[in-house]
Specification:
mainly alpha, globular
Length: 461
């Protein structure tokens, strides 16, 4: 029996138990929502059917079962997060459709170092830089994989397995783990910010996330990735492979055509606007949609409206379903019960503020192993904010403490970009799993506490 069969059986069992509601000490409404939530998580994780189809089914079951109204179930489509993800897909599509991604890759290869250390540093900087320009994590991975293969072929032997691992894993880990320090860098970040806004009616600005998360969660963790990859892979490379390979700088000079220059200009403008949103007050969603409209402007934009047909619209059902399940859990009274049980089990008030925030992160981490981390952000954020506020913690700092837990990917199945990398970059599941487990474990032990101390020093807590 495969994992998909087991997952399907457990999902149906959870759904059946939830609607049967056999536990007398728990409200029947909470049992039904929990049964549906666990069913969705299992189906999303094991994927016996496409994630988008499961998500649409969840959106329909919620009103059909009376757990939400139809309007409440589909209300996330009117929220900012869904449209921010949509805009990110469109901006990423502009990079691939105009060939800008290939041109930038060629330009980067001209300055790539010839030593093992310089190669590793350059690759990590490229991966981290891509997180600023390309909002969609999966699309970034898809664009970086062929670039990584081109690097392998140019600087060494394309059949060198260790060089292949070093290059691809450097790009993958830096763009994902480093990108977690940027609001638009990963889907879990967007879901976390959206839930924070839904609970507090306050906008979490792109620049705020950058200030509180990027220096440690983004930059220091990129350095951590670099160090781990060096120890596990890069230091074992034969230095002569890089030294004897053809010089990247000997290739023809890279130039951009007019369409590529316009896309790059729009992306640079986007970074400037996102990073100053706390000054001008325009939310990242409006900025991103405005940039996408500019790219499709008649007579100037390099994209036609027809290109939108290539966007993966069904994936938006998944984002909406995460929010709908979170809303159903809140309406059922689960969040209140969850806070009460946590308060009984953990006396946060007996700890100082930094330890309270670290405990919030530690409480959420076990759920990372049970579901996609975007689902963790969607389901756990409302209850954890209430729990934190009840224990004297600021809503923003509490939300960011939860978000730290949802930046930790211990195993590939917890996040779509890693699963894409396995299939597209011919990466070993075992080696990738070991690498990201080590990175996330070290992040939990050192990076997360350092980030909380950073907040303390700057006055967030």
């Amino acid at each position: 029996m495969t994992a998909r069969h087991i997952g399907t059986a457990l999902a149906l069992l959870s759904l059946g138990l939830g609607f049967w509601a056999p536990f007398e000490g728990l409200d029947a409404g909470i049992q039904r929502v929990l049964g549906l939530a666990v069913c969705a998580i299992l189906l999303w994780t094991t994927e016996p059917i496409p994630i988008e189809l499961t998500s649409l089914a969840i959106l329909l079951i919620l009103p059909a079962s009376g757990l939400l109204s139809f309007a409440d179930s589909f209300a996330p489509f009117a929220g900012k997060t869904v449209w921010l993800v949509f805009a990110g897909m469109g901006l990423s599509l502009a990079i691939s459709e105009t060939g800008l991604g290939d041109r930038l890759a060629q330009a980067a290869m001209r300055i790539m170092g010839r030593s093992r250390a310089s190669l590793l540093v350059t690759l990590h900087l490229i991966g981290l830089g891509a997180a600023f320009l390309i909002p969609a994590g999966v699309v970034r991975v898809l664009l970086l994989i062929p670039f990584g293969q081109a690097v392998v072929e140019r600087v060494g032997d394309r059949d060198d397995g260790r060089l292949h691992l070093t290059v691809q894993l450097s790009l993958l880990c830096s763009t994902y783990y480093g990108g977690s320090g940027i609001l638009t860098g990963t889907v879990p970040n967007l879901v976390a910010a959206g839930q924070y806004e839904a609970v507090t009616s306050s906008t979490l600005f792109w620049s705020e996330w950058l200030v509180w998360m990027f220096p440690v969660i983004g930059c220091l963790r990129t350095l951590l990735c670099l160090g781990v990859i060096w120890v596990m892979f890069a230091r074992h490379l034969d230095p002569r492979i890089l030294a004897d390979g053809p010089r990247a700088s000997t290739g023809p000079k890279v130039s951009l055509d007019s369409s590529q220059r316009r896309v790059l200009l729009v992306l640079i403008a986007g970074v400037a606007l996102w990073s100053t949103d706390v000054v001008h007050g325009v939310a990242p969603t409006y900025i991103s949609l405005g940039l996408l409209c500019l790219l499709m402007a008649p007579g100037w934009g390099p994209l036609g409206v027809a290109v939108l047909r290539q966007i993966n619209f069904p994936f938006l059902f998944y984002i909406a379903a995460l929010f709908a399940v979170g809303t159903a859990l809140q309406y059922s009274g689960f969040n209140v019960l969850f806070v009460e049980r946590l308060a009984t089990a953990v006396d946060l008030e007996s700890y100082n503020l930094p330890l309270r925030h670290l405990l919030i992160t530690l409480m959420v981490v076990p759920l990372d192993f049970l579901m996609d981390i975007a689902a963790v952000a969607g389901v756990m954020m409302p209850g954890m904010i209430e729990f934190g506020v009840a224990n004297g913690m600021a809503p923003l700092a509490t939300a960011l403490s939860v978000a730290m837990a949802t930046t930790l990917v211990f195993l590939p199945y917890q996040s779509a970009p890693f699963m894409v990398a396995i299939s597209q970059a011919r990466l070993s599941m075992g080696r990738l799993s070991l690498l990201i487990f080590v990175i996330s474990l070290l992040s939990l032990m050192f990076i997360c506490p350092l980030n909380i101390l950073y907040w303390l020093a700057l006055g967030l807590i």
